[in-house]
Amino acid sequence: MNGNYRHTQRAPLCLLIYGAAVMFLVLGWALRNESVIQWIFPPTGLLMLVLAASFHHLTVEDKEDRLSISFGPIPLFRRTIKYENIVSIEVGQTTILDGWGIHMSFRGGWGWNIWSRDCVVLRLRKGILRVGTDDAEQLSVFLNRRLSDQEPFHEEDET
Question: Which UniProt keywords apply (predicted)?
Answer without folding.
Answer: Membrane, Transmembrane, Transmembrane helix
